[in-house]
Design the sequence.
C-alpha cells in the first residue's frame, strides 16, 4: 500500500498513523510518501508539531508525475493498493473510521486477488 | 513564430496585465455605476507581519477555508502559532484595503452553519454566535452544544428555505442539519451506511440560545449500498442541508466519482432517500455547494490539481476558472458566495521568476461567469449566457444583507 500525505490537509498526518496501523494489522505492507509539492522543511515542521511517529520525518516525496498519474494529489491521505506489482486503479481518499477503512481495504484486496500474479 | 501565435501571446499577455491591473484598483473607483461587473479575478495577499510566516518565510495561509455567504469572511484552520489555530479573516470591500483578522477560541476544523453563518461550531459541537466571535474573538463563549461532530463535519441552516430567498428571517426556532463520519459509530449496529446526520432545533431569542430537540445521529444511505457501496469519501453537506456530495469508495456500479445525493427536505426527516442527483464523472477534491439560484440546482466548486472549477448542474458541465498570476496553487477548499463568486486560498507569484517575484499567499476572488471556459461554452452554443458577470451591485447587496442579518456595520 502506497500512501501520500500532505500536512496541508486537515487530519491527514494526525490520523494516518492509526490507519496505517489498521492496515498493517490486516496484513498490508505500508509505504508512506509525502506530497511532492510540500517542501521538506514544511513537512518536518508539521510532523513534529502533530507528534507523528518519527518514521515519517524522512518520508520521501513521491514523484510528481506518478502522483498525478495515480490521482494522488487532490486529497490526503491518498492511498493506492497494489499486489504483485499491479496497482488497483481506484485510489482511496481521505481519513475514515476504522470499520470503513477495513471494509475498503478488504474490497481492494479481494479485487486484486482475482487477478493472477504475472 | 507565426503571426497568429504572436498575436495570441500578445493578447494573452495584455489580458493578464489587464486583470492584474484592474484587480489592484479599489472597486469603487472602477465604475461609478454599481451595475458594473466585478473584476474577473482579484488577488488579495496576506501580510506576513500580521498572520505570521510559514516555514518558507511566506505569509501563513492556513487551510480548510470556509467562505461566508457574502464572501466577506473566511473561517480558516491551521492559521499558525502567531494568531492561534483558527482565525476569522475579513476580506476588504475595496481591494486596496487590507485583510482583517479575528482570533477565535476554536480548534482546527471548526465550521460554520452554512446558509446564514448564524453560528460557528467548534469541533466539540459547541455553537458560538457569529457576532460574538467578531466582537469578543477568543473570549467568546458558546451558546449550546449539539449536532454532529467527527470527520468531515458540516452543518447547514434549514430554516431559510431551499431556494435562498432574499428575505432575512430571524426565526426564534432554528433548524440545523449536520453531517459527519464519526469514528466511534458502529455501522453494524443499524446495518446501514457509515455517514450520519442529525437535525437539531434551537430556540434563539437573539441573545441566548438553547437546544430544544434533536433527531439524534442517524445513519444514512444504507439503501444505496447495492449501487454505491457504503463508504463515502469527502462528504460535504449542501448550503440548505437537503443534499450532500461525496465519492463512493467501493461502488458496485461504475467507478468512484464525485456525486450528489438527496436528503429529506423536511428538517426533522428521519428517513433519507439518498437519491442520485448528479455525477461529476471525476474524482476532484471536496465539492462544496453554492446557493440554489432561481430554483435551479446549486452549483458546486472544487479544486483539482491546483486549479479551481465550478460545476453547473443544469448544464451538466464543469468549467475551469482562470489564473491571472504565475504558479497559482489553489487550496482544496474553495467556496461559492450567494451571488456566485468563487473564493479560495492560494499561493502565487506576480511573475515567473522566483528571484524577483517571491511567492505570495492569500485569497483569490473569481467571477466564474467571466471565466474563459464559461464564455467559450456559450459562444460555441451560439447563445447568450444567463449571466454575463457578477455585478458590484449584487456583491454590495449580499454584503448588506449579511451585515443586516448579523447586526454588523456594513
Sequence:
Amino acid at each position: 500500500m502506497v500512501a501520500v500525505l500532505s500536512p496541508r490537509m486537515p487530519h491527514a498526518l494526525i490520523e494516518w498513523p492509526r490507519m496505517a496501523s489498521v492496515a498493517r494489522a490486516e496484513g498490508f505492507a505500508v509505504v508512506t510518501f509525502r506530497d511532492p509539492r510540500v517542501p521538506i522543511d514544511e513537512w518536518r515542521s508539521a510532523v513534529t508539531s502533530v507528534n507523528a511517529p518519527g518514521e515519517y520525518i524522512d518520508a520521501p516525496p513521491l514523484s510528481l508525475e506518478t502522483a498525478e498519474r495515480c490521482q494522488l494529489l487532490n486529497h490526503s491521505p491518498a492511498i493506492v493498493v497494489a499486489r504483485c506489482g499491479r496497482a488497483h486503479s481506484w485510489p482511496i481518499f481521505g481519513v475514515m473510521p476504522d470499520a470503513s477503512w477495513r471494509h475498503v481495504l478488504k474490497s481492494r484486496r479481494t479485487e486484486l486477488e482475482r487477478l493472477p500474479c504475472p | 513564430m507565426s503571426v497568429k501565435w504572436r498575436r495570441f501571446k500578445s493578447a494573452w499577455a495584455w489580458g493578464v496585465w489587464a486583470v492584474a491591473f484592474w484587480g489592484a484598483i479599489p472597486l469603487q473607483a472602477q465604475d461609478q455605476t454599481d451595475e458594473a461587473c466585478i473584476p474577473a479575478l482579484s488577488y488579495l495577499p496576506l501580510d506576513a507581519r500580521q498572520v505570521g510566516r510559514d516555514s518558507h518565510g511566506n505569509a501563513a495561509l492556513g487551510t480548510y477555508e470556509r467562505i461566508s455567504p457574502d464572501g466577506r469572511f473566511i473561517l480558516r484552520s491551521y492559521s499558525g502559532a502567531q494568531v492561534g489555530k483558527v482565525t476569522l479573516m475579513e476580506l476588504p470591500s475595496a481591494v486596496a484595503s487590507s485583510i482583517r483578522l479575528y482570533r477565535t477560541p476554536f480548534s482546527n476544523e471548526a465550521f460554520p452553519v452554512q446558509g446564514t453563518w448564524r453560528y460557528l461550531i467548534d469541533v466539540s459541537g459547541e455553537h458560538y454566535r457569529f457576532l460574538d466571535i467578531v466582537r469578543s474573538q477568543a473570549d467568546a463563549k458558546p451558546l449550546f452544544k449539539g449536532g454532529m461532530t467527527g470527520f468531515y463535519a458540516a452543518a447547514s441552516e434549514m430554516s431559510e428555505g431551499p431556494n435562498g430567498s432574499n428575505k432575512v428571517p430571524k426565526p426564534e426556532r432554528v433548524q440545523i442539519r449536520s453531517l459527519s463520519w464519526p469514528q466511534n459509530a458502529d455501522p453494524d449496529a443499524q446495518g446501514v451506511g457509515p455517514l450520519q446526520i442529525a437535525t437539531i432545533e434551537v430556540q434563539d431569542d437573539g441573545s441566548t440560545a438553547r437546544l430544544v430537540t434533536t433527531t439524534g445521529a442517524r445513519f444514512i444511505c444504507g439503501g444505496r449500498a447495492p449501487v454505491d457501496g457504503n463508504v463515502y469519501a469527502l462528504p460535504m453537506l449542501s448550503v440548505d442541508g437537503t443534499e450532500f456530495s461525496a465519492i463512493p469508495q467501493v461502488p458496485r456500479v461504475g467507478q468512484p466519482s464525485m456525486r450528489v445525493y438527496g436528503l429529506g427536505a423536511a428538517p426533522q426527516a428521519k428517513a433519507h432517500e439518498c437519491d442520485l442527483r448528479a455525477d461529476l464523472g471525476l474524482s476532484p477534491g471536496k465539492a462544496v455547494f453554492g446557493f440554489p439560484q432561481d430554483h435551479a440546482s446549486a452549483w458546486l466548486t472544487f479544486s483539482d490539481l491546483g486549479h479551481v472549477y465550478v460545476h453547473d448542474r443544469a448544464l451538466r458541465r464543469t468549467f475551469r476558472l482562470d489564473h491571472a498570476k504565475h504558479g497559482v496553487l489553489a487550496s482544496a477548499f474553495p467556496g461559492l458566495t450567494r451571488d456566485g463568486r468563487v473564493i479560495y486560498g492560494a499561493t502565487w507569484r506576480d511573475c515567473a521568476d522566483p528571484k524577483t517575484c517571491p511567492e505570495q499567499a492569500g485569497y483569490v476572488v473569481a467571477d466564474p461567469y467571466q471565466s474563459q471556459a464559461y464564455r467559450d461554452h456559450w459562444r460555441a452554443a451560439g447563445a447568450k449566457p444567463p449571466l454575463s458577470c457578477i455585478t458590484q451591485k449584487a456583491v454590495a447587496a449580499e454584503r448588506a444583507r449579511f451585515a443586516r442579518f448579523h447586526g454588523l456595520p456594513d
